[in-house]
């Protein structure tokens, strides 16, 4: 595997010995300081669970169109459910993929009110709100849309979610120690995590245009664990101004950090642009990214780095068109509104108008 463009880290080193755990933490810090991407093995995810998830994904996308459209995300003000091919955008350009978005299963706490404002229905994030209007990002909280024709999907996704949440927590504890913070630093500031699972299919194209399976972007949150169908390439990571391939490694996840962790370390750790190139017809490609982020109402505070690390912090990448917010809910809402303008236009015209007015 010496020809791979990303480092490989083994999570099981944390259980081997104090020396092996310290070595893992050093490698973790170095990988996310240098490139923001790495392969992760030793996660304890069984081949059997991988196979079940893969089959469930294939079964979902093989459903009749009517069954998939019955849970289309246009019906969800929370941006959940099925997105047809071409229904999502990155940097304003159409992504050539279909997918189902699955978040935490919760009751909706927001509903449209007269005049396009919001009203609170229950709790916001991990804390109880008062009688004031719910914050805009509370519109992301609500139930998922599950296909009636495939009840087993919910079971395997729930198992996948629970296992990867454990992996994510172990990584965050290792990061905290590697950055000179208490081991429970992220646990204390995360609240009830905002997770998102996307089950994605990239259809093949007979020509190279549009090549954009998903366009170049940085993830807006903290941590992403990506499972890719074995043997299927297409993921590319930007390194030193060039795009390099990140093919799947058997038994490994591709892991990257998002803008919020870059923000919390003031650029010592770096969020990196990545993209997916469409496969050539008749091939296609399944991938399942798992996003692990703080509660919507949580702010991830700046980490007070040791002097030697702080001296290597590069500052946060500034993009006036894509500001990074300390409050995670603002980042998440910004990302959803941009990625799904059709859903935003149907359910959140007031937010669309407000943001258009701010730009104008």
TrEMBL record:
Pathway as given in its UniProt record: Antibiotic biosynthesis
Transmembrane segments: none
Protein name (database record): Isopenicillin N synthase family oxygenase
PANTHER family to which the protein is assigned, alphabetical: 2-OXOGLUTARATE (2OG) AND FE(II)-DEPENDENT OXYGENASE SUPERFAMILY PROTEIN-RELATED (PTHR47990)
Residue stretches of biased makeup (Low complexity): 113-125
Any single biological process term in GO: antibiotic biosynthetic process
Span list, region Disordered: 107-131
Stored Pfam families: 2OG-FeII_Oxy, DIOX_N
Top-rank taxon, per record: Bacteria
Gene Ontology MF term list: metal ion binding; oxidoreductase activity
Family of this protein: Belongs to the iron/ascorbate-dependent oxidoreductase family.
Record domain Fe2OG dioxygenase: where: 192-294
Species of the source: Microbacterium allomyrinae
Keyword Metal-binding attached: yes
InterPro entries recorded: DIOX_N, IPNS-like_FE2OG_OXY, IPNS-like_sf, Iron_ascorbate_oxido_reductase, Oxoglu/Fe-dep_dioxygenase_dom
Keywords: Antibiotic biosynthesis, Iron, Metal-binding, Oxidoreductase
